């Protein structure tokens, strides 16, 4: 049988893993069984593109997610390419068939209670340079939404405490100005004072955030720092610096900030990029509605 031959080829010559073979086998069985149910005598060779499309639609109707449907379609496409090379079929009906669009996952962000716990609930030692550095970095990411690479590149001279703003150099060296609140300005000032007392000088003394050797912090060091502290306040799997960027944007929009203003603060070239956060806030709104509206809560009882 062609499907068995194809699976042996995938395993022996392409080095496919047992999991891949199992996934392909399930997909091909689903497809061939669909052909058999559809019409007596219908097989790989005489199926056309419409039939393949109908099979894809049938999977969606049966509750398959877009990702799983696309994986199954990919297996069938691979089978047809193999069969075409071998001369077993004369045409590939799956070639121009597209799978359903995969739904983009919404950005992960901290809830207000989690953010409050992060900055006010943890036992921060304000006499310890590591704690002060960590809290300053986390608070700056959360209150400005800047990227990991941007926070690493910040210099002391980029912070203007009089104008209460900072200059950020983003992608393609484009610069933008971001306002700073009283809390983060005070935190930065306290950190700088302690840093200069405890951190040895190095070539990167202009850098705002320095590691224990007085050198510019690396992306890995920042990532690990953020991941550690976020793990103390949230059960979400994703705990990267970008979660704090998402949290900034979501919090701003939830508190009536204009989309265009958030776009400028984040350094997005296109408003469409920022638009995703409106979906996040709407999903949060729907959850709030479901949990709070008396008719909704009654329905779930």
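^ Assign residues to that structure.
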């Amino acid at each position: 049988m062609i499907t068995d031959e194809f699976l042996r080829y995938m395993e022996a010559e392409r080095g496919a893993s047992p999991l891949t073979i199992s996934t392909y086998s399930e997909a091909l069985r689903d497809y061939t069984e669909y052909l058999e149910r559809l019409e007596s005598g219908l097989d790989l060779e005489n199926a056309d593109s419409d039939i393949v499309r109908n099979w894809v639609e049938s999977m969606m109707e049966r509750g398959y997610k877009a990702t799983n449907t696309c994986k199954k379609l990919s297996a069938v496409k691979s089978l047809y390419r193999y069969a075409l090379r071998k001369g077993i079929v004369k045409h590939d009906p799956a070639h121009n068939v597209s799978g359903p669009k995969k739904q983009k996952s919404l950005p992960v962000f901290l809830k207000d209670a989690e953010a409050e716990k992060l900055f006010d609930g943890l036992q921060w030692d304000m006499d310890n340079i590591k704690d002060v550095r960590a809290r300053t970095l986390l608070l700056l990411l959360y209150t400005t939404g800047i990227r990991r690479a941007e926070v690493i590149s910040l210099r002391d001279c980029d912070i203007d405490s009089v104008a209460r703003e900072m200059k950020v150099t983003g992608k393609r060296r484009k610069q933008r100005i971001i306002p700073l609140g009283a809390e983060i300005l005070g935190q930065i000032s306290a950190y700088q004072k302690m840093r200069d007392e405890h951190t040895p000088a190095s070539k990167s003394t202009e850098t705002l955030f320095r590691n224990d050797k007085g050198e510019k912090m690396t992306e890995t060091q920042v990532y690990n720092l953020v991941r550690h502290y976020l793990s103390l306040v949230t059960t979400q799997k994703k705990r990267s610096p970008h979660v704090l960027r998402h949290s900034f944007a979501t919090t701003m929009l939830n508190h009536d900030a204009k989309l265009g203003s958030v776009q400028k603060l984040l350094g997005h070239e296109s408003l469409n990029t920022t638009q995703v956060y409106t979906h996040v806030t709407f999903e949060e709104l729907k959850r709030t509605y479901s949990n709070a509206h008396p008719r909704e809560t009654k329905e779930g009882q």
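DSSP finds 13 helices and three strands in the chain.
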